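Comment thread on ticket #2218

A.B. wrote:
> Attaching the input chain for the structure job we discussed in standup.
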Amino acid sequence: MTEVSTSPWWVYMILTESQRLYTGITTDPERRFQEHLATHEGKGAKGAKFFRGHKPLKLIYREAAENRSEASKREIAIKKLPRNKKWLLLHN
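C.D. wrote:
> Ran it. Output below, let me know if you need it in another format.
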């Protein structure tokens, strides 16, 4: 995982129970993971609708971005990658 503790924005990936990958942006990846988990469990509504049907297992990737704009651009780029290239990000 690429980490720069001074970064206010992060691009992250979550692995689900069904082995799907979810990519998003946030200022706090751990908090966001908990929001997605609460949405799946029916205990909250702040997580993505995707997680109503897919149980998040763990935060598997995060990458620092300079600002929200850069985080959004990187999120889009990652979402366009084929699945195997997304997995390669985890090992670099």
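A.B. wrote:
> Thanks. Noting for the ticket: The CA atoms of residues 14 and 62 lie 9 Å apart.
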